[in-house]
Specification:
By secondary structure, this protein is an alpha+beta fold. It has five helices and seven strands. The protein starts with a helix and ends with a helix.
Length: 171
Amino acid sequence: MHTKPIHRRALIGSVAAITLAACSGSVTVSGRVTDTEGTQSQGLSSGPAFGGAGTVSAASRVEASGVGSGGALTLISETSIQADGAYQLEVPADSERVVLRALSSSGEVVASALLDAAVRAQGEATRSAPPMSSETSLEAEIFQQLVADGVAATSIDTVDLRSRITVQLAA
């Protein structure tokens, strides 16, 4: 088949990128909290609505956490949020399936997103996180609930999860 050499090159490139990132110790993740449409609760928790109007002004900091057994979050890193919703934080280079949560000054989660892996693309200085919105909040909440229900985090196809969650579904 003609695609084998391409797959080998992609695999070799991926392994090289992961190896280089692992050697560096940590990766800077940059992202943004947004006021994207949708202010209704996603229904998986009894907490407040996630994402939507007023999210940027309500958020004061971002936490990056790993998801352990039972869906428990383990804090990896945290940082403050700029007035426009932008943030940067450091995470270990080998981090995978990191839940990013924007919190208010009182500690309430106001938005979240899922970062698949802390591996920078070749030539990039930082790893870009998905913008936090109602849609990404629902994706992160479903991911965490799947892990809490006993599904191994590494076996969850996050691309498929993202393709199934739409702005309309999150609203």
